[in-house]
Specification:
14% strand, TIM Barrel, 11 strands, alpha/beta, two-stranded parallel sheet
């Protein structure tokens, strides 16, 4: 779809870390859809999921820089299905992989199965979305590299291997990085052939390739181990993305902030505090740290938290995704649109 000029300007300025004196606001009142009764049938059918996603887009009211983004969801660990992990549907929002190995595999023991039914199904959905002029398409979830390796063999197995077999872990991560880049480019080639830019599950349009880098596994790592086992590969995959951001997930991951800010072409950090930690006022200082680095920040807050947030951290390079927007509290967001 064609991106409105005002939205394009605001988002490009945000990606380029420009001070504009105005925050970027992504605000939506979502559609209310009936629950899915058969999760297995839902995840087995591209048609069912596409039709439901389009119904949600049509029924959603959008404000600010929010766009009709179709997140091509195959679960947060989608790429593991292409590595051959069985994918287990739990609900319309959740599908989890089963591990393939009981011990750390050698790099030659795993590979993306590019011709598998699962991988073909994902690419078909990406292509369908990219060709639809009514929405902005995204890539399916690619995941973090340690997250993926931990899912292949079990997180406890990987934690022991970091100490006992570090060189083998490095060889696995290097191969996973190559697979991540190839899978990402395979999707971006399709999307950018048909669309004006693309988006990701973060909900932010970019004029070129974009994806949130992440290592949720890192909440169990010291920063020394993060710098050894995560940072080199994050830099490698970030170099393949035109508009990368980093998904910083939960308080235990904050110790890695200074390290990840060293990624040369990282443009923004997305802060997600995690369940039970959502009160935005607790994180004003963290947001200031991100902004002080010269990078942009994406955060989530309620309409009631928006003005205190902007007053405390300032509007420049700040993108706020609004949670819990209704007709009744819309007036709290409207002045910033």
């Amino acid at each position: 779809m064609r991106i409105p000029d005002s939205v394009r300007r605001q988002l490009i300025s945000w990606w380029n870390n420009e001070n504009t004196g105005k925050p970027v606001i992504l605000a939506q009142i979502p559609a209310l859809l009936p629950p899915i009764e058969d999760a297995s049938a839902f995840w087995a059918s591209n048609d069912i999921r596409y039709d439901r996603a389009m119904a949600a887009i049509r029924g959603t009211k959008r404000f600010g820089c929010a766009l009709p983004i179709h997140y091509v969801s195959f679960g947060s660990s989608a790429l593991l299905g292409s590595y051959g992990c069985p994918m287990n549907p739990l609900s319309e929002d959740t599908i989890w992989p089963s591990r393939l190995f009981d011990e750390l595999p050698a790099p030659e023991d795993f590979d993306i199965r590019w011709d598998s039914p699962w991988h073909k199904m994902m690419l078909e959905q990406v292509t369908r979305s990219a060709k639809d002029p009514e929405n902005v398409a995204t890539a399916y979830a690619l995941g973090g590299l340690c997250d993926t390796l931990g899912n292949l063999c079990g997180e406890e197995t990987l934690l022991y291997a970091l100490m006992d077999e570090p060189e083998k872990v490095h060889r696995c991560l290097d191969k996973l990085a190559d697979g991540w880049i190839r899978a990402a480019k395979e999707q971006w080639d399709i999307i950018l052939r048909h669309q004006d830019g693309c988006a990701s599950w973060a909900g932010i349009w970019a004029p070129g390739s974009t994806f949130p880098l992440q290592e949720d596994f890192s909440f169990m790592l010291s920063d020394e181990m993060y710098r050894e086992f995560c940072l080199p590969y994050l830099k490698k995959i970030a170099s393949a993305v035109e508009y990368p951001l980093y998904h910083l997930d939960g308080p235990p991951a904050i110790c890695h902030l200074d390290s990840l800010l060293e990624i040369p072409n990282l443009r923004a950090v997305q802060w997600v505090p995690g369940a039970g930690q959502e009160i935005m006022a607790k994180w004003h200082g963290l947001v200031k740290r991100i902004l002080a680095s010269g990078k942009s920040a994406q955060v989530y807050c309620t309409p009631e938290e928006l003005t205190p947030l902007i007053d405390e951290v300032g509007p420049d390079r700040l993108l706020v995704t609004i949670n819990g927007l209704t007709e009744e509290n819309f007036h709290l967001v409207e002045p910033y649109l």
